[in-house]
Design brief:
Elements (H helix, E strand, L loop, with lengths): L2 H20 L3 E5 L5 H12 L2 E5 L5 H7 L5 E5 L5 H9 L3 E6 L2 H11 L12 H10 L1 H5 L15 H9 L7 E5 H4 L8 H15 L5 H10 L14 H6 L10 H4 L2 H18 L8
Parallel strand pairs: 1-3, 1-4, 2-3, 4-5
Length: 280
Amino acid sequence: MSIQKVFLLFSISLATITNSVHKQYIMVNSIPKCGSHLLYKCLYLMTGKVQQGWVKTKSWSENVRQMNIETHFGATHSAPIEQIISNIEQHNAKMLVALRDPRDQIVSGANFFTQHLEGFGYLSFKKRIDELMNRSVFWIGRFITGIRDEMENGNIADLYRRMLEWDNYSFVYIVKFEKLIGKKGNGSRADSIDEIMNIAHHIGYPLSITKAKQIADTLFGTVENNYSERPGLTAMINFSFNKGKVGQWKKAFTKKQKERFKEIAGDLLIEMGYEKDYNW
């Protein structure tokens, strides 16, 4: 076979893959304050797609019908409940679930939710950490479809274990904030590039390593108003960005809070690969 024919076949194959990914329904899911907006930015830089809007159980089918999946992806905060799983499988969707070290999720939430949860902002910073550690489902579960229907006052481990059940489904890839954030967020460039490639592979997007490196180098932080002509893109990415740093809990947790976290979720950290034991 001639070089020209090989190149032609390769070009046709690549075009087929690219065409299919444009028609791939993508859903971004997360626990709030786990890097969902970082993932939105990653998908935009990778595919040019932007967030369509929030998808809840009752609006899923309508959202699919209205969405131009060549230019948009869906976003949600949802536990793995039967109706959502059925809809994802029916539409052959790919889901990305953003998670992070639950200790950092608590610290980020303690800063962010002061303006979004009634009564939360009146608490001291220390008390807000205690509340999100011990009653995470009460405070954050209201944002996650299916969580508070099952439990009311679960702690941070209860919340994470329920969301981690998504990992049992082949259409899901768990995106780790610490891997995606990169060097500027106290992660590593190599991990960021690897995670970007993993995301591309999961959604079937033909991404080159050169492009992955470019995305990794521009992913951290907010964006300027002229970043794109797409309406609302800047607000979508900047909305909840705080510090975007790994390991903020080390400065925020008191000794008593560290011990309490070990008691209720120390095993969770080990299971998720954030610690090897309880000696932290």
